[in-house]
Amino acid sequence: MLDDLLDNNRAWAQDIESENPGFFEKLSQQQSPEYLWIGCADSRVPANEIVGLLPGELFVHRNVANIVAHTDFNCLSVIQFAVDVLRIKHIIVCGHYGCGGVKAALNNNKHGLIDNWLREIKDIYHHHETRFRPLDEEARVDLLCELNVAEQVRNVCHTTIVQDAWDRGQELAVHGWIYSIRDGLIRDLQLTVNGKDQIDPIYRTDPAELPNAS
Fold it and tell me: Which of 88, 138, 171, 200 has the most CB atoms around its CB within 10 Å?
């Protein structure tokens, strides 16, 4: 019943190979992306395609509403592998306008297990509640999508993984972007963080306390 998908795959692989002979053989030997993409699982936001990158050029982690929770060892493991093993240079947190997870967080309907996952987005709304009062529903969703990206950028920067990389002098920047399904364009939210001096002191780890720190 999925033969059409398999046919699509064969056609895709042939197109790639015809344009770049030996591509898959070379790709099978190693991966060396410079970017980690943390995005939403929404099927309308295909990470590689919207930034025009080929397989092997973008390391990707996706979940509902692009959340970076400090209790999510799946996400943290992806970040650590990307930073410590692949030595990526950029972490991009990319949300998108009209996010279904953000919409769900804005109402009090019961959705099931995911309500626990979306709790952090409700906290963001609560913290900025006065900014939402004059807005209509669509504008509230879009603003919360942007604020959620900003919060997740901070969460990435607060991890010991990223701070340890900065302590050892590794080149690493964290960025906040948002994608619009309406026009296919990405907006840079100007949230780039390049080092510990850009985060609140309470969240900074002390390199003197790290084992074997120089």
Answer: 88
Active site residue 99: yes
> Is 158 among the residues known to form the active site?
no
The answer to whether 42 is a known catalytic residue is: yes
Q: Catalytic: which of 61, 96, 154, 175?
A: 96
Residue labelled with tokens 């074997």: 212
Give pLDDT tens digits for 8-50.
989 989 998 998 898 888 888 878 899 999 999 999 999 999 9
Catalytic-role residue among 42, 61, 75, 167: 42
Q: Which residue has the tokens 């990206």?
A: 149
**Is the pTM here over 0.85, yes or no?**
yes
Catalytic residue among 94, 99, 145, 157: 99
From 7, 15, 44, 111, the catalytic residue: 44
CA distances from 137 to 75, 110, 142, 143, 147 (A): 30, 19, 9, 10, 15
* N residues, the chain: 214
pLDDT for position 213: 44
Whole-angstrom distance, CA of residue 39 vs CA of residue 68: 10
Measured in degrees and rounded to the nearest 5, phi and psi for residue 188 equal -80, 120
Residues 176, 188: Cα–Cα separation, whole Å = 7
Q: How many Cβ atoms from other residues are within 10 Å of residue 139's Cβ?
A: 11
pLDDT in tens, 64-114: 999 999 999 999 999 999 999 999 999 999 999 999 999 999 999 999 999
Helix then strand count (H, E) for the chain reads 10, 5
